[in-house]
Design a protein that fits this description.
The chain is mainly α. Helices cover 61% and strands 3% of the residues.
Length: 221
C-alpha cells in the first residue's frame, strides 16, 4: 500500500481524514493547526474528541495561564476589569503594518508610556509620554481613537482607571517574559490562548442556554 504523506507538512504520514480540507493529514498537523489554519466544521470528530478530552499538556498549560491571569484582575473594580479585557482583546487582534512585528517588549513599552500619560493627565497636566520603539508608538496610535471615545465625559476617574490597568498589563508582560524569556511573544501568545479558551466557554454556555450540546468543557477564568 502506498504511503500517503501529509499535504500540510510534507513529512509525516497522513492518517486522519480532514473534513475541512477533504484530504488525509497527519495527526500532528491536525492537532496543531486545528481552528488556527484549518477551519474545522463543528461536526468534525477529531475536534469534538479534542474538546471532550484535552491532552494533559493542554490542561497543564491552561492551569499555568490561569495562575498568571487571575491575580491580574483579582483586585480590579468592574470598570477596570472591563477595560483590562478590552485592552487585552485589542492586543490579540492588533495587526501591525506590513513587514512589522509586535513583540512583548513593544507592548510593555507602550503600556509604560500610556500609563505615564494617563497618570499625568489625572493630575491635570497634559503631557504625552513616548515609548522607545516605533512598533510601540504605532500600537499607541492604533489604541488612541478608542481610548479617547471610551474616556469621553468621564474625566480623571477614567484616566486613573486606565493608568492602573496599563501598569498592570506592563507588570504582567515583564512577569511572563521573566518566566518564558526565550519566547519574545510569550505574553501575547498567552493572551491569545486565554481569550480563545474564554470564547469557547462562552459559546458553550450559549449552546447550553439554547438547549444545544455543550461544545466544550474546558474550565478557564
Amino acid at each position: 500500500m502506498r504511503t500517503v504523506v501529509c499535504p500540510l507538512c510534507g513529512i509525516r504520514r497522513a492518517r486522519r481524514a480532514c473534513p475541512a480540507l477533504g484530504k488525509q493529514i497527519c495527526t500532528v498537523c491536525c492537532g496543531t493547526k486545528r481552528q488556527i489554519e484549518i477551519k474545522c466544521p463543528s461536526d468534525c470528530v477529531w475536534l469534538a474528541s479534542a474538546r471532550e478530552h484535552p491532552p494533559a499538556v493542554a490542561v497543564r498549560r491552561q492551569q499555568r495561564d490561569a495562575a498568571i491571569v487571575v491575580p491580574l484582575v483579582r483586585d480590579f473594580s468592574e470598570r477596570q476589569t472591563e477595560l483590562f479585557l478590552w485592552i487585552t482583546t485589542f492586543l490579540v487582534s492588533y495587526r501591525p503594518p506590513e513587514l512589522q512585528t509586535l513583540i512583548d517588549d513593544d507592548v510593555a513599552g507602550a503600556m509604560t508610556a500610556l500609563a505615564a500619560t494617563f497618570e499625568t493627565a489625572s493630575r491635570g497636566v497634559i503631557y504625552e509620554h513616548r515609548p522607545a520603539t516605533l512598533a510601540a508608538e504605532r500600537l499607541i496610535t492604533a489604541l488612541k481613537p478608542a481610548l479617547t471615545e471610551a474616556g469621553r465625559g468621564r474625566g480623571s476617574a477614567f484616566e486613573r482607571d486606565a493608568a492602573v490597568v496599563f501598569r498592570r498589563v506592563e507588570e504582567a508582560v515583564r512577569e511572563v517574559r521573566g518566566q518564558l524569556g526565550e519566547n519574545r511573544r510569550a505574553f501575547l501568545d498567552l493572551l491569545a490562548r486565554v481569550l480563545k479558551d474564554h470564547s469557547t466557554v462562552e459559546a458553550s454556555r450559549e449552546d447550553e442556554a439554547a438547549g444545544q450540546p455543550a461544545a466544550s468543557r474546558l474550565i478557564v477564568p
